[in-house]
Amino acid sequence: MPLPSRHIAVDLGSSTIRLRCAESAGVWSAPHLAVVDDQGAVRAWGEEAWRMAGRTPPHLRLVRPVTGGAVTDLALAARLLGSALRVARSGRKRMRASEALVCVPDHATSMERHVLRQVCKDAGLNRVTTVTQSVAAAVGAGVSSAPAGALLVDIGADRSSAAMIAFGAALVTRTVPRGAGTVDQRLVRHTRETCGLTVSRSMAEEAKLAAGREGDSVSVRGQDSERGMPRTTEISLTEIREVLRTTYEDTGLIVSGVLDSSPPELVDDVMDRGVLLCGAGAGLYGLDAYLRERLRIPVHVAEAPGDASIQGAFDLGRQGAPVGVA
């Protein structure tokens, strides 16, 4: 049976905004940021704003309306969501009857949930319900609502969380305010301190993604910290992997915390089923291997891990199931 065209799932991430609409065949996404002038007018958003990062004149600034899963600029978040909805829904402007299921971080306060709902309403969505990120990800990753426990780890841009899921609900959760984007920041600092080279976040991200390559080193371009002139240098893959290790350790701590606080019956389930990694940072080089070695249990990466939460929210809305909805 086809879905009603009014059904929409929303994931307002710190780095990416994701939508899943009944009219479209898949997930629509764009960088969740805007270029704003001195008067507060939006000059660019999404991909266009991303390309302008580090290149804007003094009267323009790059703004992210969501940080750590919490809305920091309600008006801008609503404006960007409204624009995203029109693009994702092929330019349709009428959304009076639209129903939305919006993902919220597991650690979100009641006020943060209220603000997220308000953003959706201000963007033109009428009926708005929230669902916790871990529950949505569990559905999107194919973890059923059976009583058997499942341990999901969500690696976002600036936060990472782990949750024990059973009966379609998150029973135990742990979160740290660091994620895949934190690795980029650490690599920027590392190249400045060890090589005297200031690199952009995008160059740091390229270096991060190169960690799984064969070879000994990767070339990075930047600005000489003393002379201000452009320079290229080599960074060893061993150095990059050592920077990544801090994120591995953060993730290992929250997973261990969830296991320590969970009933032994659910821990037994996880020993059989393993840990499931999702979120945009789930494919971070070496993370799954580190967790396997530390925990001595299977670790799997979800299919299309970055889209697990938004797909799960969409499926929950399609089913009309209140399970896990907060």
Explained architecture:
The protein is of the alpha+beta class. The chain has 3 domains: 7-136 and 308-319, Nucleotidyltransferase, domain 5, CATH 3.30.420.40; 143-178 and 243-306, Nucleotidyltransferase, domain 5; 180-241, ATPase, substrate binding domain, subdomain 4 (Actin, Chain A, domain 4), CATH 3.90.640. 37% of the residues lie in helices and 27% in strands. The chain is built from 10 helices and 18 strands. It has helices at 47-51, 74-88, 110-122, 133-140, 180-195, 201-209, 237-261, 264-273, 287-295, 308-319; strands spanning 7-12, 16-21, 28-31, 34-37, 42-45, 60-63, 66-67, 70-71, 99-104, 127-132, 150-155, 160-166, 169-176, 197-198, 217-224, 230-236, 275-278, 299-301. The chain has a 5-stranded mixed β-sheet, with helices on both faces. A hairpin with a 3-residue loop joins strand 1 (7-12) and strand 2 (16-21). Helix 2 crosses helix 3, helix 4 (133-140) crosses helix 10 and helix 7 (237-261) packs across helix 9 (287-295). The radius of gyration is 20 Å and the shape is flat. The two termini are 27 Å apart. The model is unreliable at 322-326 (pLDDT under 50).
Search tags:
single chain, 326 residues, alpha+beta, Nucleotidyltransferase, domain 5, Actin, Chain A, domain 4, 3 domains, five-stranded mixed sheet, 10 helices, 37% helix, disordered C terminus, cell shape
Largest sheet: 5 strands, mixed
CATH topology of the largest domain: Nucleotidyltransferase, domain 5
User: How many angstroms separate the termini?
Assistant: 27 Å
**What is the correct CATH architecture of the largest domain?**
2-Layer Sandwich
Biggest sheet strand order reads: 3-2-1-9-10
Shape designation: flat
- CATH class category label of the largest domain: Alpha Beta
**Structural class computed from helices and strand pairing:** alpha+beta
Structural Rg = 20 Å
Number of domains: 3
- Quaternary organisation: single chain
- Helical proportion, percent range: 25-40%
CATH superfamily of the largest domain: ATPase, nucleotide binding domain
> In terms of per-residue confidence, which ranges show pLDDT below 50 for 5 or more consecutive residues?
322-326
Q: Calculate the mean pLDDT score and round it.
A: 89
GO molecular function: ATP binding
GO cellular component, one term: cytoplasm
Region (Disordered): 211-230
Protein name: Rod shape-determining protein MreB
